Amino acid sequence: MRLIFVxxxxxxxxxxxxxxxxxxxxxxxxxxxxxxxxxxxxxLPADLVARMAAGALVPDDVxxxxxxxxxxxxxxxxxxxxxxxxxxxxxxxxxxxxLSRRGSKIDLVLALAVPxxxxxxxxxxxxxxxxxxxxxxxxxxxxxxxxxxxxxVDDLEEVVRKRLDTYEAMTAELLPYYEARGMLRRIDGVGxxxxxxxxxxxxxxxTRQPTR
Length: 212
Ligand code: AP5
What we know:
15% strand; binds BIS(adenosine)-5'-pentaphosphate
């Protein structure tokens, strides 16, 4: 299956992507993770580092090139889950074009919906284990003792507010784009992780059922 997770910062895309990908045996492709890895390795230009730290999007052509290359890898043949891409209509159009050239397409777009105040709390109290990439939350899923924790620079409250504004201004256009194509399923992202996972699999199962 080729899936997309759309949702605002802190909606739980990364958390749910790890569960869904493990169960379906497909890779999680997160443009945010790819950009952060490039930064750590010193490969991300300074202006893009600054954009990310300020809560702005990086240019479309940068992330489109990353996705074009990554989705050609052999581990993507059984499918993949795109986490945080596309975020704009031009990115969605580019994705459609590059997949159709390979005789392929996206099966389903899952949009996680969570109210703004909860998003803020989820992002600001998020911590990630640098060694394993495991995502924790200081209130909802506390890290174990000894975890090597990282607090993302873009998870400071003021930056999260900016990222939420950016999402609302730019990414919200994506939902009508996919809705018009009959590809969109909206998922209530409020509740514990297991409850949200169950809603995602219910949506996937109903999509895979043959129509009568
Ligand atoms: P990216 O890394 O994609 O960040 P994001 O979309 O803002 O999403 P987050 O990672 O903040 O949240 P999430 O939904 O994955 O939530 P999580 O599961 O961690 O992008 C970062 C930056 O990169 C962008 O700002 C931009 O600059 C750039 N970029 C990336 N892609 C781009 C693109 N396509 N175009 C242009 N620029 C791009 O959960 C959050 C917290 O909540 C965690 O602590 C978790 O433990 C907790 N949690 C999760 N689910 C639950 C639950 N059900 N109950 C309680 N707690 C929960």
